[in-house]
Amino acid sequence: MRVPLSWLREYVDLPAGETGRDVQAKLVSAGLEVETVEQLGAGLKGPLVVGRVLAIETLEGFKKPIRYCQVDVGQANGSGEPQNVICGATNFAVGDKVVVSLPGAVLPGGFAISARKTYGRVSEGMICSAAELDMSDDHKGIIVLPPEHEAGSDAIELLELVDEVLDIAVTPDRGYCLSLRGIAREVATAYGLPLRDPALLDVPAPNAHGYPVQVADRIGCDRFTARTVTGLDPEAHSPIWLQRRLQKAGMRPVSLAVDITNYVMLELGQPLHAYDRSRVSGTIGVRRAEPGEKFTTLDGTKRVLDAEDLVITDDNGPIGLAGVMGGANTEIADAVPDPETGAVRGTTEVVIEAAHFDAVSIARTARRHKLSSEASRRFERGVDPEAASAAAQRTVDLLVLLAGGTAEAGVTEIIAPSAPRTITVPADHPDRVAGVTYGRETVVRRLQQVGCDVYGADTLTVTVPSWRPDLRDPNDLAEEVIRLEGYENLPSTLPRPPAGRGLTERQRLHRRVGRALAGAGYVEALNYPFIGDEVLDQLGLAADDPRRDTVRLVNPLSDAEPALRTTLLPGLLAALRRNDGRGAHDLALFETGLVFRATGDEPPAAVLPVDHRPSDEEIAELNAALPSQPRRAAVVLSGAREQAGWWGKGTPVSWADAVEAGRIVARAAGVELTVRQDQQDPWHPGRCAALLAVVDGQEILVGNAGELHPRVTKALGVAERTCAMEIDLDRLERAALGPVQAPHVSSFPVATQDVALVVDASVAAADVEAALRAGAGELLESLRLFDVFTGEQLGEGRKSLAYALRFRAPDRTLTAEEASAARDAAVAAAVERTGAALRGA
Predict the structure, then answer these.
(1) How far apart, in whole angstroms, are the C-alpha atoms of residue 353 and residue 374?
(2) Nearest in space to 569 (alpha carbons), one of 716, 721, 729
(3) How far does CA 531 lie from the centroid of its chain?
């Protein structure tokens, strides 16, 4: 809401030296958000005067029209002689009054005016447009003034070019501040000054002679006032003061009747609409639209109406979208000359509508049709229903005054019965809310300044004013007292939080995993938790894959991603593709976070109360409606794992790097993984590993790792041989044997024994490793597969697996015999369990 300070002073007698900055400080202290104070006319310097065009000479030979004008500026130039000015505009004629800046003037933006030679003539000043004077963005032509203004008079004062405008961001609960009346009330309260309420007008009582109106929906429209004005002069234009106030408030002057309705709306906060009476057929009605009913609004758009839309109608159908925008079929006609008689034709009779509509209905209609207007902004935030008749009277008075109209005696007013809202509140309730002792007198005084009627002693009965629909409970009243007393006067009290208990084990695991992956060279990439069906198709997930059972959002940010993720891979692969497309080809990314897995057994979510704290049972019921949210860690890799250089060839990423990433995560959790071959989408069937861990004595799947399927990499637009790993951190936490223990550093030497075992090609290396561990006993410190060999000398279908076994005792140095015995026991177990043979034996 833009509020000119000069207009505001009409309702509040501010001190003479009070500036816009001073008013801004007062309003901010009262809880309003004043974003800026615009200084209109800053740097403007005269002489800027009214001029009368005496003669116009059109100069030939130029690409655009150039006119050499003689302008009478009275005694403003010191000589009384006509001023010669070059001008390129063509929207004025001899005898018109224009705005002239004389040499020595400085226009907004620091543009200095001087006499100079141009187009072969000397131009002694400039004839100004609205844009050049910073009045509006209109560059189409210069300003043509009404003929009554005397040549040579000061145009700066005439056009009210010097002013201050407060730009206020009005929150949804303070709809009354979308008017000069509402802002003036706040200013008067802040300064402790009386308010001249512009809504206090003498309004005639309703009678049976007004324009016929029928309201079918009294819930959607609980008040409708109609007034009629006849005998309007179609050639009447909005006076300068009216146009300037609209421009300063951010609105564009259109025509006198429309400008007056906009002016009254800005003044009183009540949206109005003027219908051309000659184009309205029969009774004006208010009803809900018929499904599929069509209607053309003032902006020329043909709209298909919804059954919930509230419409204004006549005998022929809709003539207005209630509270949003009028119809093109009854709009005020522009004044145009009759081609035969030369007489000016236009609207001479209007019906004024001032109604009060349901805020929710108007808000839904405006959003449904994507048609936000000045009227809908006010209705959806709450309009004072008692101001409708005053706004209609104010509009009638201005039409009579400025357009020469005659107000008909008929007054139509339809009002649905209603009672003012009353709230009972303890007198010390604001004290208890703020932690400050205000006292009953202060509470009563502040509530009365808001406009409330207050009765009672220890318990107050407060009648809320009609312009404050946001005041609904005792806390709203307490907020009014606190803000008017000043938020800055509230004492600052530091809370005393309980002693911290540190991070949970789950949080510690989350941090350890992130640090471990970052230390291994991975870069964390945080992604939005939203996915769509398209990416699940690109991943090649089967129709019955549980990852397709997504949780859908009621209000998604993007129609392409309407669901919550069931896997971390889509977001990481999108980040990989984005970075690869920008030239970074060697990538290793990771993410830890929640996925959302719906089971289908979740009960509907309960709606929790807002007037008190929910009970533990209600919170538990709400939590039960949530989907399962396991915590995952995932990595994606592409390009080179080690760069090529003078030291040799580089190493491309492979499925083994993805598997090692899983082991890194598991080690951070203190869990030993078992790796087996697997087939799982979206991985390559021959290069996919299952990551297994023991939970409660049972081996379970905790994740998968490997190279992505070629069809997946092609569909997603990522590099070939892209690898990925995803692992369930919650399952790893259950597999962990308590907190991770720091490793014991032994002071005794290690004994290393290498063995090479020949097994069938179908035997998994993990099975051989498990057998070796079981047979080696407690002396085995670590075991590592360092070579896999196949060849003719082993025979078809056979492979050799070479392992390095490290033995160490915690309390002594092992002898060669003890290390050899442990190795032999490990080999024997492998022979027994897997059919292995010691190579070379």
Answers:
(1) 16
(2) 716
(3) 21
Only one residue has tokens 């030979």, namely 61
Rounded-to-integer distance, Cα 619 and Cα 403, Å: 64
- What per-residue confidence (pLDDT) applies to 526? 93
Residue type (1 letter), 707: E
- The reported pLDDT for the residue numbered 182 is 95
Note whether 77 and 87 are within 8 A (CB): no
Q: Which residues contact 499 (CB under 8 A, 6 or more apart)?
A: none
Burial letters 453-474, b for 16+ CB under 10 A, else e: ebeeeeebebbbbbbbbbbeeb
Q: At 685, is the secondary structure helix, strand, or coil?
A: strand
Q: Could you give the CA distance from residue 75 to residue 152 in angstroms, rounded to a whole number? A: 6
pLDDT for the residue numbered 601: 81
Pick the closest to residue 688 from 654, 718, 734, 663 (CA basis).
654
293 is in an annotated binding site: no
Residue for token pair 């805020």: 359
pTM of the model: 0.69
Region for residue 625 given its phi and psi (left: phi exceeds 0; alpha: psi -120 to 50; beta: otherwise): alpha
Strands 587-594 and 523-524: parallel
Predicted pLDDT at 505: 86
Amino acid at 8: L
| Distance separating alpha carbons of residues 745 and 79, to the nearest angstrom | 105
The DSSP output letter for 129 is: B
Helix/strand/coil percentages in the chain, nearest 5: 30, 30, 45
**Residue 134, annotated ligand binder?**
no
Is residue 794 a contact partner of residue 757, using CB atoms and an 8 Å limit? no
- Asked whether residue 586 is marked as a ligand-binding residue, the answer is no
Closest CA to 580 of 710, 716, 724: 716
Contacts (Cβ under 8 Å, ≥6 apart) of 367: none
In the numeric block, the tokens 């008692």 are attached to: 386
Q: Which of 697, 672, 677, 700 lies closest to 687 in space, CA to CA?
A: 677
- Indicate if the pLDDT at residue 840 is higher than 90: no
Q: Is 760 annotated to bind ligand?
A: no
Closest by CA to 172, choosing from 371, 366, 380, 362, is 380
Burial 779-807 (b: 16+ CB within 10 A, else e): bbbebeeeeeeeeeebeeebbbbebebbb
- Res 341: pLDDT: 67
Look at residue 232 in the predicted model and tell me its pLDDT.
92
Give the Cα separation of 668 and 740 in Å (integer): 8
